Amino acid sequence: MTNGTTPVTPAGPAPGIQQHRTLRVLLVGETVSMLGTQLSAVAMPWLVLQMTGSAGDMGLVMASQLAAIAVFGFFGASWTGRLGPRAVLLTGDTVRAPLVGLLPLLYTLGYLNTATLVVVMFAIGAFYAPYTASQQAILPGVVGEDEQLLGRANAALQSATRLSVLLGPVLGGVLISLLGAPTVLLIDAVSFACSAVLLRLYLPHTPRAATGPGRRSPAAGLRLLMRDRLLGTWSVALALGEMAWQALFALLPVIAVTREHGASVVAGGLLTAFGGGALTGTLLAGRLLRRFPARTLGLTGRVALGVSFLALPLPLGLPVLFVLLVCVGFLNGVSSAPVATVRVLRIPQAQRPEALTAATALALIGGTAGWVLSGTVAQKAGLSPAFWGLAALQLTAAALFVLGVVGTPSPAPAASSPAPHSTKDSR
Q: Contact 196/99 with Cβ under 8 angstroms?
């Protein structure tokens, strides 16, 4: 079975991503998996509160997952590089399916407790950074190295992710009320299993030579990023940006409580405003990449994003704040796929899995720090100083994006190569 790719010549336009059967299957599998993950993001803390009634236990369980993400983001980079992205994706879905499914089983039998949840959530979190990085690393092997086509494939993958994030929490809340949190976790386990089956059947093998032989240290991916001016500055910029985003998301309920008299629907509406803008921007990015280079589109979006955050500390009314969140979400969405494309193509093919895993871990650590610190700053200094801090973070990130491209030549346009074809024997 081939993936339906059509070779692209330098003089002609890249084919539509809809022509890539393997990519379509990858998107379906990853959408199913990500939607299940979003359901669990609502069901897991709900189950802990239902079992223990303790917010402290809930925080401990969720923190165990974040700890695993940080640890295995760096120390897992070496085995990610050795295994290759296909094996990481398959292993991640195959292992997490029974891990998540174990929780409702233990709950039904009366053996589930906080300690067990901590251990299982740590194990689940161990796959997050390698899995996310492998999603990006495998795309060139599916659609080829053409920047325009790869950028549109990245946009399609990110659109699936953002749609899952937008719909998952709402759907999770409805399903919990109808079926209960343990059943929702079981649905997540099934989603992992379905994704694993689809990927095993249709995702082509990554050639062993492409994953790079030899010994790899946990810091190898990080060193590779920091040796390159663009990769190093952009990786730090993405970590600072993620810190600002997660801090902003953590402060949305504070806005609802302090400015809108505790209306929970306000916090949800503000988050939806960002999500809708981000999804719209991501969908548009695929079209814009037909006309603009990925570097130009990504850099323009990130600079505009930094400037837009300067409006956040102003005394905005709720309607204006809503519009602002739509705008910054749009800028985030329209620039994310181009930034990811530039970064992937700049990393040597043999080192993409480990370098992207390290970069993902760096961004996630930044996001975790933003989530943890934002509440403390807002409580001690107030919302306005906290928002000025977020603006400073995004402006610094924008400056780093500019610094990364100054003096760094753009890659010369090259002949596009067809994506590798998968055969039945290769599976």
A: no
